[in-house]
Amino acid sequence: MRETEFKGHVVVLPYPSQGHINPLLQFAKRLASKGLKATLATTHYTVKSICAPNITVEPISDGFDEAGFAQAKDVDLYLKSFKANGSSTLSHLIQKFQNSSFPVNCIVYDSFLPWVLDVARQHGIFGAPFFTNSATVCSIFCRIHYGFLTLPLELEDNKPLLLPGLPPLYDSDLPTFLRLPESYPAYLAMKLSQFSNLDMADWIFANTFEGLESKEAGGISKLWPAKLIGPMVPSFYLDGRIEGDKGYGASLWNPLGEECLRWLETKAAQSVVYVSFGSMVSLTVKQMEELAWGLKESNLNFLLVVRESEMDKLPTGFSDSINNKGLVVTWCDQLEMLAHRTIGCFVTHCGWNSTLEALSLGVPMVCIPQWTDQVPNAKFIEDVWKVGIRAKEDEKGVVRKQEVIRCLKEVMEGKRSYEIKKNARQWRQMARKTVGEEGSSDKHINDFVEHLELANKKGDAKALNGYYYY
Question: Coil, helix or strand for 397?
Fold first, then answer.
C-alpha cells in the first residue's frame, strides 16, 4: 500500500513483556490489514525481538535500554522511569512523522501505561487504552479503583462476592491481590492505575469477545465502556484473512519448534498433554516435583515446557527417566503446539493469553493457577465455559501428583471428557466467527478504522476530539 493510501496512522505501544507485546502487536496487524499504517513503538531492549510484516517498528526508551526491567529490578522504579523517558521519546516519535505524508492520528496503548494518553492529548491526537485481561478481571479492579470494593476483601462465612454481570465468586475464585493487597503493592497500584483517566480516552479496547464475556462487560459498562475486539490470536488459527499471519512476530525467547514437532509426529492424535506456565510464573520446587511425577505416573504422553531458569527445580534424573513418553524443552511456539493434531490437553497457569489461545484452538485445559487474574480465569474455564478442570491444592497450597493424575485422566479419558471436548470445539468456532467478516469483534475494529479514516480525510485529528466512541 502506498503511503498516500493509508486510512490513518496508529502508533501501538505495549507494556514490554511477552504477554503484553503479543496481543497489541496482533491488534496492530489487524489494523494494518484494514488499511491503516501501524507503527509498533516498543523499548530499545525488546525492539530487536519483533518482526512482523506490514508493521513499522520504532524504539522508545524506558530508561533501561540495555536490559529493560531486569536492569531496573524494581517495578515502581521501572514504571516511573518508563513514564519519564517514554513520554519524551514517544513525543519525538510522533513529531518525526508530523511532517510526513502519514502523520500519527491515534495512539493505542497498553492500559498499564495511562500516561500515554497525556502524550496523545499534547499532540492533539486520539488515545485509546488496550486492556490485556478478561472483562471479568477488569470489572473487579475497576470497582476497586472507584471505591465500590475495598481492600483487603474479606468475605464473611464463605459467602460469595456478588457483582453485576458476574457469577458468584468465592475467596478461592478471586485475584490473589484482593485478599493480600500488601503482597505486591507496586503491581497492584499498576493494575488500579489502568482506570485513572478512562473518561478522557476516545476508545477503550479489550482483548476478549462478546460471545465469551458480553454479560461480564455489560455489568461494568458505565464505568468501563470497552469495545471487545479479541481474541488477538494470529489470523492463521482463526479467520485466515491476514496472509502469512501464523505467529505473533515477537519472541523474547528462542523456541525449539523443530525438536518439538519431530517428537509430536511420533504420537497418536489427541494423545499428548502440553504443559506450560508461560513467561513469568515461577513454581516452587515442591510444586515442580509433584507436577513432574504426576505427568510421568499418569502414563500419558507429555510435552513439558520449563524455562532455562527453572530447570534446576525438576527432580534429579527426571528427564532421563521419562524415555520417549515425555519431552522436556525450555521454550516452544505455543500456538503451533496447541494447534497440533496430537495435543489432547493443555496444563496451564491460566494466563489470559494462554486461555484465549486454548479457547481459540479448541484445546481442553487442566488449570493450575498461581496468582492474580489466573485464579478467576480458572474459575471461568471450569464452571462457566466448561472447557477444563481446576486442580485442587492441598492445605499447603500444593497440587499433589495424585491430583495432577486425576485431572489429566478426567480431561483426556474420563466421564466429563466428552462434554469438555465438545464445549472446546464450540468455543473454537465462536472465536473464529467473532473475528471473521461481520463478526462482533470485526465490526468494532471496522468502526474504529472508519472513524480514523474520517479524521484523516479532514486532515486534523482534533476535528473529532470530544467525540467519545462509546
Answer: coil
Assess whether 195 and 132 both reside in one domain. Answer: yes
* Same domain flag for 17 and 110: yes
3: in domain: no
Q: What is the pTM of this model?
A: 0.95
Is residue 158 classed exposed, middle or buried when 0-12, 13-18 and 19+ CB atoms within 10 A define those classes?
exposed
Residues in the chain: 470
In a domain, 465, yes or no: no
Annotated catalytic residue 20: yes
Quote the number of domains for the chain: 2
Strands 106-110, 55-60: pairing kind: unpaired
Looking from the CA of 49 toward its CB, the CA atoms found within 13 Å total: 20
Residue in 110, 239, 373, 442 annotated catalytic: 110
Grid cell locating 222: 458505565
For cell 526508551, name the residue: 61
For residue range 120-179, list pLDDT tens digits in order: 999 999 999 999 999 999 999 999 999 999 999 888 888 999 999 999 999 999 998 888
End-to-end Cα, the chain, rounded Å? 30
- Mind listing the pLDDT tens digit for each residue in 325-382? 999 999 888 999 999 999 999 999 999 999 999 999 999 999 999 988 999 999 999 9
88 & 224 share domain: yes
User: Do 236 and 93 reside in the same domain of the chain?
Assistant: yes
Angle between helices 75-98 and 185-193 (to 10 degrees): 30
CATH of the domain at 148: 3.40.50.2000
Same domain, 346 and 447: no
Tens of pLDDT, residues 224-283:
999 999 999 999 999 999 999 999 987 765 666 788 999 999 999 999 999 999 888 899
Q: Is 359 left (phi over 0), alpha (psi -120 to 50) or beta?
A: alpha
| 102 & 236 share domain | yes
- Asked, for residue 176, whether it belongs to a domain, the answer is yes
Please check whether residues 278 and 382 belong to one and the same domain.
Answer: yes
Task: Based on the residue annotation, tell me whether 460 is a catalytic residue of this protein.
Answer: no
Decide if 369 is inside a domain.
yes
> What is the domain extent for residue 91?
9-250+437-458
Is-contact 252 70, C-beta < 8 A? no
Nearest to 355 by CA among 323, 314, 317, 387: 387
DSSP summary character for residue 408: H
